[in-house]
Design a protein that fits this description.
By secondary structure, this protein is of the alpha/beta class. It has 2 domains: 1-81 and 158-238, P-loop containing nucleotide triphosphate hydrolases (Rossmann fold); 93-156, no CATH class. 37% of the residues lie in helices and 26% in strands. It contains 10 helices and 10 strands. It has helices at 44-51, 74-80, 97-103, 111-124, 126-130, 141-153, 171-186, 198-204, 222-226, 229-235, and strands at residues 6-15, 18-28, 33-37, 57-64, 67-68, 82-85, 159-163, 190-194, 207-212, 215-221. A 6-stranded mixed β-sheet has the order 6-7-8-3-9-10, sandwiched between helices. A 4-stranded antiparallel β-sheet has the order 2-1-4-5, covered by helices on one side. A hairpin with a 2-residue loop joins strand 4 (57-64) and strand 5 (67-68). The chain is globular, with a radius of gyration of 17 Å. The termini are far apart.
């Protein structure tokens, strides 16, 4: 079996004197959509921030495409092929949708191909083309999330990590974003999705890791986890 695209082993990290993650093991194979679920404050966002180099790891290993990325800086992680769509979208106020998208390609040297990738993300999310000259932060929440995801794609990542896809969005918009993610995945981008809405996450992903108090409590394929009585009671309201 080939080595996973992303393999996290024994990862511990936190903020100052507060440790949040305790010995986390996680793997993502090339071409998969994998989700990380758990209650608010369980450590999901910290896990993504540690992988992307924004939080310093205290111990463990992060290997991506055979390369050791433990405590590499955010630019090095992005250059290696991991793009992080943060919780809250973090678009730049006063900048147009197009300029926000182009910022996603700031490390790229193949400028001649950037315009082609811009057309690609406009095909994925046509509303962004209509809003290309609009201040990105004046769009609706769903449109801003599309812009944040598209900005991540502009770096040409091998792995796209998305923190809280559905937060604060209407069901119709969540469905549209889910369709967009599946299309992105079909174009060859592996996806690691953090999501508090477990039902949405399980519909999109083939495998899941359940985080509780900074540790992996359960993992497996989503079909099996959906039938787990503990998961159903804790997260699916069954």
């Amino acid at each position: 079996m080939p080595e996973p695209l992303l393999k996290v082993t024994g990862l511990a990290s936190g903020y100052g004197d507060v440790q949040v993650l305790w010995g986390v093991d996680l793997d993502v194979n090339e071409g998969e959509i994998v989700c990380i679920v758990g209650s608010n404050g369980a450590g999901k966002t910290t896990l993504l921030r540690t992988i992307s180099g924004m939080v310093t790891a205290r111990q463990g290993e992060i290997r991506f495409a055979g390369e050791n990325l433990l405590n590499a800086g955010p630019d090095a992680v992005l250059s290696a092929g991991i793009a992080h769509v943060p919780e809250g979208r973090r678009l730049f106020r006063g900048m147009s949708v197009k300029d926000n998208l182009l910022l996603g390609a700031y490390l790229r040297s193949d400028r001649s191909e950037v315009e082609g990738d811009l057309d690609h993300v406009f095909d994925l999310f046509p509303i962004l083309k209509e809003r290309a000259s609009q201040d990105a932060t004046t769009m609706s929440g769903g449109e801003q999330q599309m812009c944040a995801i598209a900005r991540g794609i502009m770096s040409r990542p091998k792995l796209l990590m998305i923190d809280e896809l559905s937060l604060g969005l209407a069901p119709r918009l969540i469905e549209r974003l889910g369709e967009g993610l599946q299309a992105i995945n079909r174009h060859g981008i592996t996806i690691l999705l953090v999501e508090q809405d477990v039902m949405t996450a399980f519909e999109l992903a083939s495998r899941a890791f359940v985080v509780e108090t900074g540790r992996i409590a359960k993992s497996g394929d989503t079909a099996t986890l959906s039938d787990d009585p503990v998961i159903r009671q804790a997260y699916l309201g069954a």
